[in-house]
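Weekly structure sync, notes
Attendees: PL (lead), two postdocs, one rotation student
Agenda item 3: pending single-chain targets
PL asked that the sequence for the first pending target be pasted directly into the notes so everyone works from the same version. It is reproduced below exactly as submitted, 56 residues in total.
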Amino acid sequence: MEHFMMMLVPLLIGFLMVGVGFNYREREWGVRLLSAGVVLLLVPILVKIYLSLHLA
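Predicted structure, written out during the meeting:
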């Protein structure tokens, strides 16, 4: 369950950041929040790829 939460928490925070950033996309901090949310959404994917390539 711990590994599931380690992947779920960044995804939920990333989706929240993307949603709030999209609502305020006309402001500079909204665009930055949107891009930070997208990067945070990619982190679990990159971690899984790194772990699978590192252990192989």
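Discussion points:
- The helical segments are 2-23, 28-55.
- The radius of gyration is 14 Å.
Action: rotation student to compare against the earlier draft before next sync.
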